[in-house]
Amino acid sequence: MAKFKALYAKLPLFAEVPQWLIEAALIKSYMFLPRLKQIRLQIFPRKDMEEDKYFEYIPFTWTATNLMQNGHYRANFLFDMMQISFLNYQADEYMESVVGPCFTGRLTEVRELIDALFDKPTPQTNGCNGKESLATIPTFIEPTFSKLDVNPGPNHDAVLQSTQVRQTLERFVNHILYHPGVQNASEYDKRRLRQELRLFLQAHVDQIEDNDLLSSQLAQQNGTATYQNPKTTYFEWIRITSSNHTSCPYSFAFAMCLLGDGKDFLSTAAEKYIGEAACRHLAALCRMYNDYGSLRRDRLEGNLNSLHFPEFQEAPSLEDDEVLKRRLFQLASYERKSLDLAVGELGLISHERVMRFIRMFVDVTDMYGQIYIEKDIASRMK
User: Rounded distance, CA 122 to CA 120, Å?
Assistant: First the structure.
């Protein structure tokens, strides 16, 4: 516990927070760990992955920010958000380590599979009242792909593996969309969650494509660490593909479903617009911080990082990593100012119950970014 306390005390988020609050949040976070560990592998397998270092950090991000909001949120809500947090890490691992290799040269099939998961009819929920916890709900619908008749043949292993991928992704999607709290949400908030979750998974397919292209370029360029001829500018990538990939927008939409009590959590057009703007600035900021801290790992694993984009190469020759990181940090500072402006505008027009959650969600997401500046906590493939 001492090493975690020392790390958290260094984060800018806790610069003016008393030590007792950090200690209290740590104690509370460890109370959630046994229950979280029980459902750790409920959705995604973690074969061939190193230890999930991020797992022990997750409960604290929610207990600490909740105490900073005077402990307003109940344990069930915090637990659901903790589970969403580690599922997001696991989804990222699974798409990178399993889906990418399994569907090499066939990523169009993955896109079609993901779309099919969201285009199927929504089942009835038998009057769920929205009060249960996500962890109490196993698989809401038996995966339709589990009934596929796979005939042995020369491609039997590949077909079987593809079927397992389909089952796993469907289990994940069902787990989110058919949570009782989501079913109790307004139609607008449910629709937004479906949209954002689909974009989250499709962004991972985009990332796999980008990683494959980057790897082939680096092989041809003898390791030159610049992404040649990207499909978009860095600005477009960080705003669209990268923001969706962070899971920030869909996690925000999920929480709004749980907190809306059957009504739109953000009720006016201005709240919806500015709230989404704030979420997108937050997602960009988080990705920039993540890339700042994970550059070494991303190079080893061939993952596209912000600093691979040609915009960061301002001189004819490759520059020192610290120079590149300073340029990225400058852009992150701009995103923070934009985020602060959006949150400030939202505060002028929104009820305190909305702003309480906005502040908490921003702090949770920001904390991950600040941790990445200090320490890369993502898992690597073995």
Answer: 6
Contact 86, 40 (CB under 8 A): yes
Q: What is the pLDDT of residues 185-195, one digit of tens each?
A: 999 999 999 99
Q: Amino acid letter at 37?
A: K
Distances in Å between the Cα of 172 and the Cα atoms of 75, 114, 352 are 22, 11, 33
| pLDDT at 130 > cutoff 50 | no
pTM: 0.87
Tell whether the torsion through CA atoms of 81, 87, 91 and 97 is positive or negative: positive
Enter the tokens of residue 62: 């929610």
CA atoms of 38 and 36, how far apart (whole Å)? 5
The size of the chain, in residues, is 382
Complete DSSP assignment for 156-196: HHHHHHHHHHHHHHHHHHHHHHT-HHHHTS-HHHHHHHHHH
Query: Helices 352-374 and 2-10: crossing angle, nearest 10°?
Result: 110
Tell me the C-alpha distance between 239 and 325, whole Å.
Answer: 19
Structure tokens at 11: 């984060």
| Single-letter residue type at 336 | R
CB 143 within 8 A of CB 166: yes
Rounded to whole angstroms, how far apart are CA atoms 67 and 252?
A: 19
Candidate from 33-37, 65-69, 77-81, 142-146 with smallest mean pLDDT: 142-146
Q: Is 333 helix (H, G, I), strand (E, B) or coil?
A: helix
Strand partners, 138: none
Q: Residue 363: how many CB atoms within 10 A of its CB? A: 19
CA gap 292, 299 in Å, rounded: 12
Q: Between these two residues, 142 and 123, which has the higher pLDDT value?
A: 123
Q: How far is the C-alpha of 307 from the C-alpha of 234, rounded, in Å? A: 10
CB 334 within 8 A of CB 284: no
Q: Which is nearest to 176 in space by CA: 143, 140, 127, 131? A: 140
